[in-house]
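queue> pop job 88
queue> type: inverse folding (structure -> sequence)
queue> payload:
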């Protein structure tokens, strides 16, 4: 199954979780991959919840991609920084010359009631989750239009359509991602470029589990594993979503068979609303 042979995929948040799963799925179908990820040691806003892998985790993801026979570039990336995005994109240009696929998974959150939200946390979540999406799409879209082929897959969330009293910035940012996706899809449609978003419920990743643990400890004063067990039980399928499920859906969206699937927000939730 090498239907993406000679295609170049850019994957953000690619060292772990859903980003890593999408990178491996795309590489398994023949694509060469550029991985970008913010790494441990980067500054965080007050109250920020994020999973920042270490450099060895990014290198391990690169090795996994290469083990599938793909070429791989792995670079530290902060999607909230114009300078970091520009440097990453220049490195891709030098290595591969173009990008055919964008799989964008970089994201963070911060939990607080809106009246108690620190301005720095609000702006940080919006800048990473929404503005970071804009930065990456803005860079890849012109080349895709010029080539007459492109696939853009953005990780949104069920939080885009279901609110939570302490997740205002996250919900707003992911709703913005869905809105942006629809505009990009319409811009790309005449040129062979599709754009879709994937909106998962709780996913069994370090980020997802860390987020649930934070809610349990900071808001409810209870054990994180107990909260995670309750989240599983509340899901109609009795489970969390696995990152490989997101990778498999992203892979389908990048296929020629999915050319008619664009401007869609695809929910992966096991029947759960959140």
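queue> result:
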């Amino acid at each position: 199954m090498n239907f993406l042979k000679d295609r170049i995929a850019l994957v953000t948040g690619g060292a772990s979780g859903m980003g890593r799963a999408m990178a491996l799925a795309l590489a398994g179908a023949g694509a060469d991959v550029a991985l970008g990820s913010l790494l441990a040691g980067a500054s965080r806003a007050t109250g920020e919840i994020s999973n920042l892998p270490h450099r060895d985790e990014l290198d391990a993801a690169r090795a996994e991609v290469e083990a599938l026979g793909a070429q791989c570039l792995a670079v530290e990336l902060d999607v909230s920084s114009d300078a970091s995005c520009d440097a990453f994109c220049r490195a891709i240009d030098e290595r591969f010359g173009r990008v055919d696929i964008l799989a964008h998974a970089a994201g963070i959150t911060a939990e607080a009631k809106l009246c108690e939200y620190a301005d720095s946390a609000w702006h940080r979540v919006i800048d990473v989750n929404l503005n970071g999406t804009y930065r990456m799409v803005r860079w890849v879209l012109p080349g895709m239009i010029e080539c007459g082929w492109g696939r853009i897959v953005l990780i949104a969330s069920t939080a885009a359509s279901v609110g939570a009293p302490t997740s205002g910035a996250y919900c707003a940012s992911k709703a913005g991602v869905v809105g942006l996706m629809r505009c990009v899809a319409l811009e790309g449609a005449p040129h062979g470029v599709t754009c879709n978003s994937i909106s998962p419920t709780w996913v069994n990743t370090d980020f997802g589990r860390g987020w649930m643990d934070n809610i349990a400890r900071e808001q409810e004063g209870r054990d994180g594993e107990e909260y995670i067990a309750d989240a599983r039980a509340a899901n109609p399928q009795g489970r969390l979503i696995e990152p490989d499920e997101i990778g498999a859906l992203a892979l389908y969206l990048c296929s020629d068979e999915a050319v008619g699937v664009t401007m869609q927000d695809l929910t992966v939730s096991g029947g759960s609303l959140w």
